[in-house]
Specification:
Two copies of one chain form a homodimer.
Chain A (H helix, E strand, L loop, with lengths): L1 H10 L5 H13 L4 H9 L7 H8 L3 H16 L15 H21 L4 H14 L1 H21 L2 H12 L5 E4 L15 E5 L4 E5 L7 E4 L8 E10 L2 E11 L12 E5 L12 E5 L2 E4 L9 E2 L5 E2 L9 H31 L1 E2 L4 E2 L4 H37 L1 H36 L11 H9 L8 H21 L19 H6 L14 H22 L7 H28 L18 H5 L2 H18 L1 H6 L14 H19 L2 H6 L5 H4 L10 H11 L10 H9 L3
Parallel strand pairs in A: 1-5, 2-5
Antiparallel strand pairs in A: 2-3, 3-9, 4-8, 5-6, 7-8, 10-11, 12-13
Helix pairs in contact in A: 2-3, 4-5, 5-7, 6-8, 7-8, 8-9, 8-10, 10-11, 10-12, 11-12, 11-17, 11-19, 11-21, 12-13, 12-14, 12-17, 14-17, 16-17, 16-19, 17-19, 19-21
Chain lengths: 719, 719
């Protein structure tokens, strides 16, 4: 009831000054908390239409309204809603159970809503936003497992399995990593040995180190897995392929003979996800359980290789783009909480809002800007990927050409965004003082949940090396071998290498007025200069790969952030043109009425892009200064001291400017209070009472502890 | 049994090559795991005496042997040892209970050992190293609560309470922070109103926001608290003072009338510590319950103020130095685990040890060096502080003069070290890939436990502002007002300001050969140049405090690290002289036989100091380049490009060099396996089997989950 009121309130946001004056009077009249008055004042002059931004940010008016409906469904349904409002007092066992309960209810709800696909999609998105562990568990089956059949299965295989998969009559997991092997897939030890006599593969874990581990849903849930194994025929190893392996009896849940499977137990975070491990003991599966879209094994045992070895990890390319949506959700929620708290919390001699301290807003505002950048980037990149995968059906060779580029992009984005995500979440935690150490303000659990993204699904260091290897190889082709401009098609992420010579000729930045730094083309140009010069350094030393690894990894990061700036910049240009309907961030075509209104939001997107660009330049300032052109004057620096001053100055200035509208900026993401779960993130600002109620509702808040007589009384009553 | 064997093994470390050759043969003979062979090889040529380093690192041979005995006691005693070896499967409730069980057993054990004070002290240190939550809980009573009586109580008050405190007949906590007030103590709302008629103070929490919160041991344990309250007499507020307030009935554990107290519930970490909250409802205490060493209130209600307001937070100065010991323990344990794992884990085409990847050793080696620096620094600073506090008894005015300096030092060290600690722990986590996400490898819990140190006991941002304020004030006195060299005594941490003019005259670094960077005096000089120039920038703009807050905070960090380098450097000089017995890091005088042996370890300490120095310079490289001298040539940079190259080069080189002895370096800290708790940190290198055994021993590893029939079977058996 309370929260429904809140949603209505959110809908009533308005930048109409009269309304706000009246609202303010009502606030005071009702003797609301000081926090409520603070947030009301922060909302007085957003300078943009928050409601319209909510629509645009969330994929259009129609989509946003569907999301609101979906949130209402979750909040009302006792099997979707987390009992008590949060999972922070639940044991690991209870959280594992809760999430499966939610999944069952969610699937039934979707079946009931099947005639409303928009609402179904909205329910999926909102549940994933509501619960990280729910998301991961559904994702393992619906995405990783299911896509394995799409990407690696023949049409016959796909048709055979897909109905059971879509209806969860079998529940799947994705077994790649082994106890002692992860990033280097060719080193995996699990074997699938072909037995001609029975036309079966024998799946086997030859050593302890080959135990499949960290497999989501293997712990308690999955009835089947796809497993990456070395394919052995007549004692010859033909390399890794995917095999379907049944794990548990679908009636009883008991592991099948030949399968030893267990739960991984306690983790840093994501307690609702049952990560597990699997050992195969001579488990036999029919030959057709090898997924044979690319590589094949005939019944006689002849191996037909894949046209492109990269195809065996193709599922992971698309998967990695989800990290953008995940970042938007995790960072968006944490920043909503921290920014609202920062505008309510007061401290110091003049009882200032702590958000007005420079150390506060400079730490948080780049994070806020990044959420807007990620929001746009996610939609742009996913659209590009979707268009590419359509080619897989119609023009395989064209699709295969694009794979390397997408692999490099997705690896780079996954690594840079997950590192940035960890940094933002930690900044958020520190910005909230001791109160973020309470589990009930949701930040600690968010840090722990997010943690695995930096090491799981490809270690970031390894991924960035793959990105930089692609970059250097392309560089060699088009610059050193001089194939640029000869019509050779290169991946879209590296097109800027065609301008290599142009950037190499520039030795000093032409920044003369700090206002130039508001120009996204100008800052993109500065950043591109850095990437090109780092690349030039790298290619000279890349034969000493390991001795330059740190530098190469940094180059991959810079290359990726440059791409993000470029795509964001391009998309804003699309948005500003009349052909807005063709832009990526408009997901629906039913929103024509709002086109003009949306274009009024452009200045906000520009502000966010400006802050993000200057943040990137400021953060990497030392790299600009370290670049060694090897020219005659070895003391020629790209930036002179005056320019450095301008950059530092504008950076602080942009943080300060955007701080003024921080509450409207985070409100516009549209996370309802019950999703945030943190009393300190409440929309209405009445934070202390809500927090205190949460504490008092926790188990064992009051009362004498059960161990008083055993372990305390012997002290206090020693005689 | 197993673990006892391990300790014997540790004692048998030797750099005798014959022994090692034999050991190696035995290793191979016994078909030990590949990890065991890897670690044995890493231990072959340490280049220093690991056993002697263990002694020196841990306070001398005698102390180290006492620590080993104490570890044995813990491991054997079923009430001190954590059942199952780790707390990572326990609920919050179980962990709270476990720690109190340990405390009772620990106190009884100490009583039994009272004739062996060295072993008692060793038991205290080892238990604190073994369990963070144990440490915190004991620390709240033994240090915070107890010291309040020492620091703020009159002799009569001290004598009245101390016996009950030392014997835990009352159990105390330390109530400072309030729900809406923390760093700005003058803003606290809790009142102590004097009632002349009864000669009592009425302790009251006037608002929800004034609830005392985050109070360690208040949740379930404490029978008493000291509380910081506004002192009100005849409607006049005389400011904050400390009051003793009984909380719970010592017989029954029930809260007393006028006290509402509860547990704070779930937190990010430290589940064994019962943080709580307290509301006072007109609770009356006798006038003598105000601690009156400095401020006093007579029975007629006359307020006699304290000679120095800083005295009211004096407990916190000494407290903050514990963070150094805490950092040594937390970082040391995490790095031991990560470095051993890094030398066993193999990945890549050539199956390299991942520790040989540049991205790996460059991330970890500065952390290893920092543990050695912190170890020395801790002992130096604590010795200085202990000498100062002795003055409190004999020469109060001299003591008061030193307080500001120590306050600035302790604030700076607390902030910089806790931030660095978080960074190291996160680096460690990421270096271990997915396996550090398992709670059983102890890194996730360590990150969560450590987290509160960055915000608790004084927010780092606020503390660094206090440090920089002291620095700027001193600067104003001795440089701007020209009082340097006139014999005015200034705090030891700021003596270098006397050389302000000397450093201001230097505009370019005189680095011409990269070997100069191995000279600790030389690198200290470079770093001092940076601090002086940042200070010069800061003083020019310090009137705009908030607009330069980020820069001022950075200055405080640099100033603090400079101090650390200086003190470390000085101490190595002491150690290298014949007057070694006067050095700070020799805690015992019974170790004369080992003096010469210890001096042979000096090269290792120098190596660690060199790496740490170059790490600091490298990390802050951009700051050197940003410094604006305001001279005619605004493009004069302190480092030229060639010098930058040398710094980057030497940094990577030192990381690579020290990586070669990384296992001996971490072995020398002497953490036993059962304290590390992480299978991946095992001394013997047999990590995978141990890890897998831990997983299999966890609750609910095997078996059909309890929710199969309710939430999974409806999917897999839909008809």
């Amino acid at each position: 009831m309370k929260n429904n009121n809140k949603i209505n309130k959110i809908n009533n946001d308005s930048n109409d000054n009269n309304d706000n004056a009246i609202n303010r009077l009502i606030v005071i009249q009702n003797h609301l908390s000081p926090g409520s008055i603070d947030l009301a004042r922060e909302r007085e002059n957003p300078g943009f239409d928050v409601q319209k931004m909510k629509w645009l940010f969330n994929g259009g008016k129609e989509m946003f309204e569907a999301l609101e409906e979906a949130y209402k469904i979750i909040q009302r349904d006792p099997e979707l809603y987390i009992p008590g409002g949060h999972p922070f007092d639940m044991t690991l066992k209870e959280q594992r159970e809760l999430v499966m309960k939610q999944i069952l209810r969610y699937q039934k709800t979707r079946q009931a809503l099947k005639n409303d696909p928009l609402l179904c999609r909205a329910l999926e998105l909102t549940m994933c936003t509501y619960s990280e562990a729910f998301w991961m568990r559904v994702y393992v089956h619906d995405t990783l497992f299911c896509q394995a059949f799409e990407m690696f299965g023949t049409k016959e295989q796909y048709d055979k399995w897909i109905d059971d998969i879509l209806n969860w009559r079998i529940i799947g997991c994705f077994a790649m990593t082994e106890l002692a092997h992860s990033s280097f897939l060719r080193g995996l030890e699990t074997t699938a040995t072909y037995d001609k006599t029975t036309e079966e593969f024998i799946i086997n874990s030859p050593t302890l180190e080959s135990t499949k581990i960290w497999i989501g849903m293997a712990g308690q849930t999955a009835t089947h897995t796809v497993a990456l194994c070395q394919t052995i025929i007549d004692n010859i190893n033909y390399g890794i392929n995917w095999f379907v392996v049944p794990l548990r009896d679908v009636q009883t849940g008991k592991p099948l003979p030949g399968i030893i499977v267990g739960d991984l137990g306690s983790k840093y975070g994501r307690h609702g996800l049952d990560n597990g491990w699997i050992q195969f003991c001579h488990k036999r599966v029919p030959r057709e359980y090898m997924l044979m879209k690319w590589s094949k094994v005939t019944f006689e045992g002849v191996f037909i290789p894949s046209p492109n070895p990269a195809l065996s990890y193709i599922t992971l390319i698309g998967e990695r783009f989800y990290v953008l949506y995940g970042a938007q959700s995790a960072l968006g929620q944490a920043l909503t909480i921290a920014c609202r708290y920062g505008c309510i919390r007061r401290q110091g001699v003049n009882n200032e809002q702590i958000m007005d301290y420079q150390s506060h807003y400079v730490n948080l505002m780049p994070g806020v800007a990044s959420v807007y950048v990620i929001n746009v980037l996610y939609r742009v990149i996913v659209n590009q990927w979707n268009q590419a995968t359509k080619l897989a059906q119609t023009n395989q060779s064209e699709f295969l050409k694009k794979i390397n580029d997408f692999h490099a992009i997705s690896s780079g984005l996954k690594a840079t965004l997950t590192w940035w995500g960890s940094e933002v979440l930690e900044r958020v935690r520190r910005s909230m003082g001791g109160h973020a150490y309470s589990a009930y303000n949701a930040i600690g659990p968010a840090i722990a949940d997010w943690g695995v993204t930096t090491t799981g699904a490809g270690d970031n260091f390894v991924l960035l090396q793959q990105t930089v290897k692609y970059l250097l190889d392309t560089f060699k082709n088009i610059v050193i071998q001089g194939e640029e401009g000869k019509g050779k098609k290169i991946g879209s992420s590296v097109v800027y290498l065609n301008d290599f010579q142009k950037y190499m000729k520039i030795t000093q930045c032409n920044l003369s007025n700090e206002n130039q730094l508001y120009d996204l083309d100008f800052t993109l140009d500065i950043f591109t200069w850095l990437v090109i010069h780092k690349l030039n350094e790298a290619q000279a030393t890349s034969s000493l790969w390991n001795d330059n690894q740190m530098s190469l990894i940094k180059l991959a990061e810079l290359h990726t952030w440059r791409l993000a700036l470029y795509e964001y910049n391009q998309e804003l240009k699309n948005l500003s043109k009349s052909n807005y309907n063709n832009s990526n961030i408009n997901n629906t075509n039913n929103d024509n009425n709002n086109n003009e209104e949306y274009q009024k939001l452009l200045p906000i997107f520009y502000k966010m892009g400006q802050l993000w660009s200057i943040h990137l330049i400021h953060t990497n300032l030392h790299l600009f200064l370290e670049i060694d052109d090897g020219g005659d004057d070895s003391n020629n620096y790209y930036f002179n001291k005056n320019q450095i001053k301008m950059i530092k100055n504008i950076y602080l200035k942009m943080c300060k400017e955007t701080r003024k509208i921080v509450i409207p900026l985070v409100d516009a993401w549209g996370f309802p209070d019950f999703v945030l779960k943190a009393p300190f993130g409440r929309y209405d600002g009445d934070i202390y009472a809500a927090y205190f109620n949460t504490i008092k509702a926790a188990p064992n808040c009051f009362g004498v502890p059960n161990y008083w007589n055993d372990y305390i009384k012997p002290f206090t009553n020693p005689y």
